[in-house]
């Protein structure tokens, strides 16, 4: 903290990193650019591929007759984490590689993206998720409904409060990792960080899945939960759906506040510093 406070009052020229300016709340200019629509398409396709691979893995695992005949929970977790690693690596330079409305929401709160872009991304992500799960049902129709369609719901033995808490904490881990891995301050001082940024994000998804698959099947991504719910269309899944929106959005909000106002000391910098004014 003392190092952060000592930076107060420094000019941008003396810094070895540059924070991008805050994104405008509503940016009407960007809707006229092809890059805006290219990013939306990238988010749609990436989320479609993410849901196709991961839900197909879940359905395939649950369809196995033998307990050790499939990839197991570890393999399911690897499918989610590995696909995020691959897709963030592929799309980071185009759209930022969000692939998750909760990540988009957290970055919007931190003024990294405009409201216009955030809403467009969320719509594209949800549509991509529906299409991705739709492909899984089309290819694996015989066992899709019998094993729950890879949809998220509160597992037997757990209550909705526990499930909500698991989703909040799991999403906090993910979004906090996103902020840390893409922090321009770290990128300037550790040249390997931009290259490896997708890796810790993928590992965060992997680790959260290991912890929360038994509780909720692991949402931490409203588009993932929504896409599976639309295609599977089960009353229990819809009854629990709010958990997979409220939990991730709350977790993303807390992660954004923690990174921006505690770790990066935005509030302290805005106020000046804790040091007393020598003229008083």
From TrEMBL:
Signal sequence bounds: none
Principal location listed in the UniProt entry: membrane
Keywords for the protein's UniProt record, in alphabetical order: Membrane, Transmembrane, Transmembrane helix, Transport
Location(s) in or outside the cell: Membrane
InterPro entries named among the record's database cross-references: Aquaporin-like, Aquaporin_transptr, MIP, MIP_CS
Gene3D superfamilies found in the cross-reference section: Glycerol uptake facilitator protein
Molecular function as annotated in GO: channel activity
Pfam families on file: MIP (PF00230)
Transmembrane segments: 40-61, 73-97, 118-140, 160-181, 193-215, 242-263
CC annotations in GO: membrane
Entry membrane topology: Multi-pass membrane protein
SUPFAM superfamilies on file: Aquaporin-like (SSF81338)
Family: Belongs to the MIP/aquaporin (TC 1.A.8) family. PIP (TC 1.A.8.11) subfamily.
Protein name, UniProt field: Uncharacterized protein
């Amino acid at each position: 903290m003392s190092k952060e406070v000592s930076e107060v009052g420094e000019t941008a020229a003396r810094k070895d990193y540059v924070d991008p300016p805050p994104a405008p709340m509503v940016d009407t200019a960007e809707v006229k650019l092809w890059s805006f629509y290219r990013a939306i398409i990238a988010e749609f396709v990436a989320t479609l591929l993410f849901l196709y691979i991961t839900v197909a893995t879940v359905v395939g695992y649950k369809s196995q007759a033998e307990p050790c005949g499939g990839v197991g929970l570890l393999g399911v977790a690897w499918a989610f984490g590995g696909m995020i690693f691959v897709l963030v690596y592929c799309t980071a330079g185009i759209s930022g590689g969000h692939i998750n409305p909760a990540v988009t929401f957290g970055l919007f709160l931190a003024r990294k993206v405009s409201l216009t872009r955030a809403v467009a991304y969320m719509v594209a992500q949800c549509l991509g998720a529906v299409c991705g799960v739709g492909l899984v049902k089309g290819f694996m129709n015989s066992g899709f409904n019998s094993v729950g369609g890879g949809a998220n719901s509160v597992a037997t033995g757990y209550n909705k409060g526990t499930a909500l808490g698991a989703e909040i904490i799991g999403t906090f881990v993910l979004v906090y990792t996103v902020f840390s891995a893409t922090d321009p301050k770290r990128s300037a001082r550790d040249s390997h960080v931009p290259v490896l940024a997708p890796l810790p994000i993928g590992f965060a998804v992997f680790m959260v899945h290991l912890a929360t698959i038994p509780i909720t099947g692991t949402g931490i991504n409203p588009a993932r939960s929504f896409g599976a719910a639309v295609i599977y269309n089960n009353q229990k899944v819809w009854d629990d759906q709010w958990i997979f929106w409220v939990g991730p959005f709350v977790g993303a909000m807390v992660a954004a506040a923690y990174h921006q106002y505690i770790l990066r000391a935005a509030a302290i910098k805005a106020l000046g510093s804790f040091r007393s004014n020598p003229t008083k």
